[in-house]
């Protein structure tokens, strides 16, 4: 007997790469929970980066819209079957909540498999970086057989203006130093692999004299993401690009904790839930110290109309 067709679900996937991946991932997970067929909208272009196997919808069709109301907050109504009464459904919003797709993680990671040419560029960069460090006889890298790669993604640029406008905190060199120390205490023979939208700032502020550090330069965003995701563990600052680097790498991930807390009194009407945004098992470093804490359960506030890439 053929499976009963329950309808389709898609999302327009606006924004840059990290946002697009969240929107696709949440659509994919919610579709599976509601017996809907997930569709990749033509123009989203994720299929140019990943081996997306879900069907592609060439043009947006008239459909029932389900809109996310609050940023980075899990909302049960988006998962309820009875809420999707039409055959054609579209999700709108940033959908930056891992709980929407945690139940289909293995299937989602299959969708987010990089194309071979991107994988080759990423693997070549990592291998050449290791060889270069060994040839310089750095005392921080002892041999090539047992290297631990730790990705470091630093989001700055437009984020400097964003956090200043929103009275939030920007991850700086102190946080990155503490995060690197966390991994040095746990692993030997580490290579820190840095990617950023401000690589010049990283070269000035990340300690490469006392650590084996390589900087990814002149790569496209998809290749940078592949490089970071092929590392063993991850340090992230802010933004969804780094979030996905940690998720795809699937090792230990350290994030910049409580950077949003100064928004509480200024934006009381909109919620931000760390436990919905950061997966359990990821660890946050407090901006004011070196203490590591598991993903917090407190709900803080952040404006909904901010673009987080």
Structure summarized in a few sentences:
Helices cover 30% and strands 17% of the residues.
Summarize the structure in words.
Helix content is 30%, strand content 17%. It contains nine helices and 15 strands. Helix 3 (116-135) crosses helix 7 (221-229) and helix 7 packs parallel to helix 8. It is globular.
Protein traits:
9 helices, disordered C terminus, seven-stranded mixed β-sheet, 309 residues, four-stranded parallel β-sheet, globular, alpha/beta
Q: Helix and strand layout, with pairings?
A:
Layout: E1 8-10, H1 17-33, E2 37-38, E3 40-41, E4 56-57, E5 64-67, E6 88-92, H2 105-111, H3 116-135, E7 148-154, H4 158-165, H5 173-184, E8 190-196, H6 199-205, E9 213-215, H7 221-229, E10 233-236, H8 240-249, E11 253-256, E12 271-272, H9 274-277, E13 283-285, E14 292-294, E15 300-301
Parallel strand pairs: 1-2, 1-6, 3-4, 5-6, 7-8, 7-10, 8-9, 10-11, 11-13
Antiparallel strand pairs: 12-15, 13-14
N- to C-terminal separation?
44 Å
Secondary-structure element order, N to C: EHEEEEEHHEHHEHEHEHEEHEEE
| Biggest sheet features | 7 strands, mixed
Helix vs. strand class:
alpha/beta
Low-confidence stretches: 264-270, 289-309
Count of distinct strands: 15
Strands of the biggest beta sheet: in what spatial order?
Answer: 9-8-7-10-11-13-14
What overall geometry do the principal axes of the alpha carbons give? globular
């Amino acid at each position: 007997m053929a499976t009963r067709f329950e309808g389709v679900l898609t999302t327009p996937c606006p924004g840059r790469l990290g946002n697009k991946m969240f929107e696709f991932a949440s659509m994919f997970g919610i579709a599976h929970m509601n017996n809907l067929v997930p569709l990749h909208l033509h123009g989203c272009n994720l299929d140019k980066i990943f081996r997306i196997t879900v069907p592609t919808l060439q043009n947006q069709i008239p459909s029932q819209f389900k809109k996310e109301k609050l940023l980075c907050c899990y909302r049960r109504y988006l998962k309820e079957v009875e809420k999707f009464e039409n055959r054609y459904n579209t999700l709108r919003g940033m959908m930056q909540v891992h709980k929407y797709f945690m139940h289909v993680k293995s299937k989602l990671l299959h969708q987010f498999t990089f194309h071979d040419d991107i994988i080759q560029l990423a693997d070549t960069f990592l291998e050449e970086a290791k060889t270069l460090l060994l040839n310089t006889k750095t005392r921080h890298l002892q041999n090539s057989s047992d290297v631990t790669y730790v990705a470091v993604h630093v989001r700055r640029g437009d984020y400097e203006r964003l956090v200043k406008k929103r009275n939030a905190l920007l991850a700086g060199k102190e946080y990155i130093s503490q995060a690197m120390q966390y991994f040095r205490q746990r692993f030997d023979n580490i290579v820190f692999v840095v990617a950023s939208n401000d690589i010049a700032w990283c070269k000035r502020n990340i300690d490469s004299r006392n650590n084996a550090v390589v900087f990814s330069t002149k790569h496209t965003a998809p290749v940078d993401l592949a490089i970071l995701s092929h590392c063993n563990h991850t340090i992230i600052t802010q933004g969804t690009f780094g979030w996905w680097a940690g998720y795809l790498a699937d090792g230990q991930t350290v994030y910049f904790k409580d950077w949003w807390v100064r928004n509480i009194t200024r934006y009381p009407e909109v919620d931000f839930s760390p436990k919905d945004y950061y997966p359990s098992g990821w660890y946050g470093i407090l901006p004011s110290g070196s203490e590591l804490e598991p993903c917090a359960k407190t709900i803080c506030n952040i404006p909904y109309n901010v673009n987080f890439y």
